[in-house]
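Task: complex structure prediction.
Instruction: return structure tokens for all chains below.
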Amino acid sequence: MAGSKTILFIEDDPLIVDMYTHVLQKAGYLIDIAYDGLEGLKKATKNTYDLILLDIMIPQITGIDVLEKLRQSDGNGLPNTKIVILTNLAQDEESRRALEAKADGYLIKADITPSLLVSLVEQVLA
Amino acid sequence: MDQKQTEKKGQTRPGLNILLVIIISQISLVLILSLFWILLRNFLELSSLVTHILLAVAGVGWLVATAFLLYQRLLRPINLINNHIEAIGKSDLKYRTKQGLPGEFANIGTKLNNLSGRLQEFVSHSQAETEVIVAEANRLRNVLNSINDGVFALDRGNRIMLFNKAASVITGYKIEEAAGKPLNHIVPLFRGNQTVVHEWLRANEGLARAEEQWEALTLQTSTGKQRSVDVYALYQGEDPNGIRTLITFHDRTAAQEIEDMKVDFVALAAHELRTPVTVIKGYLEILTNELFSQLNPEQIEIITKLNVSTGQLSSFINNILNVSRIEHGSLNLNFEKIDWKSLLTDTCQSLYQKALAQDKRLELLIEENLPPVAVDANSIKEVIINLVDNAIKYSPREGRIVIKAKNKQGSVETLIEDNGIGIPTTSLDKLFTKFYRSHRTRTSHPGTGLGLYMSKGIVEAHGGTIWVQSAEGIGSTFGFSLPQYKVVADKVKTNDNEKGIIRGVHGWIKNHTLYRG
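Output:
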């Protein structure tokens, strides 16, 4: 699909990946997947994505570290790519502040049904 | 020293006055003898020598006789009485003057003996009384010190008057260190960062009587360690002993640690359950959306049942996680300025469907211009879902559930009314306790007995209160109040609405006003 928006999904649980990918693809997005933090970072810097969906508890390096790297202001960061955290961790005050400064959204998996995710992604990329 | 000196000064040597009398009497004797001598010489014409000898003999005899008499009748008894008085002076109350003193002295001796006897009786009596009092005090101290729970007694200024051994062991302070100091300076008792006991003590000013209990308060010891204690406090406005408040506290740290481990385990298990449940829920939704038109009524019913069960499982897991956070004191509420009407409306969206599916009606009556509240959207959403869910569950077919929200002074009050089976009076006070399930509903309605306990914890962590009114067969009304944003604005750290972050009940995204969870 020409002109389709691209999403990088960094998430280690294949069931979660498959489920959300299924609906996002149906909605017309191009999905790329990374199953750990390092792979995610590599893909994010090599290719260009409109949105990165990022889990926090992932192997190699955590989602927080990936976020830090992607939001570096030394020219290596990706200031124009939207990044939304999609995790099961409820945040404490401290990490909430840190995340709010850098991420474009924070969603709790347990509360996000596939159709809700599609509508939220639409809003973020609108 | 001073007293002894004055005693000596004022003391007259016994017998001195008597000696004076003797000397005077002797002088008078010499005068009489001289007269006798003149008589003997002039009228009896005795020789000078014989006269002298006779006179000498008579004189010596007289002297000896009077001296003896004086000693026996006067000096000796006075001396004996003096000894007795001195003995009393030296607290020798057993001293007795011997019977048989001459004349008047016999009487004085007896009276002195009686006096000594009475004194002895009095002293031994008061000694016995003192012993009883001391023994009683020791007994009470032993009892107090043998209790494993800490006991404080506070005076009217909430200063520590009494402090038992357990209190000393638990807090790490010695009684000398604590005595006389305000309780709050020595052992502040916290819930979160609020000194709840201190606040309570201050609120008691002027009351006749008040009592209160707290569970799992945090007590800071002298070394800065934290211990978990259950506290009972009794305040009495008028206490003749000067004790205004008695505080007893039970150290539950060890039990708490075991409890925490259990909670940790449960929280871990629940957390691990979340992902699979998310997947089941998600695929169910996908399946429903994609296949719905092709399904026959029987299959649709199966899908509906699957959805209901997954919903129950999911909310059960949420409840467990919330309860474990409440009990762990790690609820981590992020208070925000929230428009109560939209949060209530959003949260009720999914509940409308649920009610409709059971032929029940859900109505929202929200007062216009409600002031914003300070809440943690995620947790308070759980409270609304739990209360409304219960109302749906316990309503009859075609029942009506009304959700009302209105402005009360300083807070916003939300009521969830149903015309369901109601709750027996005997169950009302246990309703908000953990795992409580009414006997009547235990078998007929699924549930965990965690929902109301969790709701209470969350509402109270917001600084609000939760309550219930019910009449059997007529229905129940659950209510809770939440502080208005302006009342607690200084405690709410960030105001995200001004930073362009829009929060929904499922998380947040930036700069998108449309998002409403």
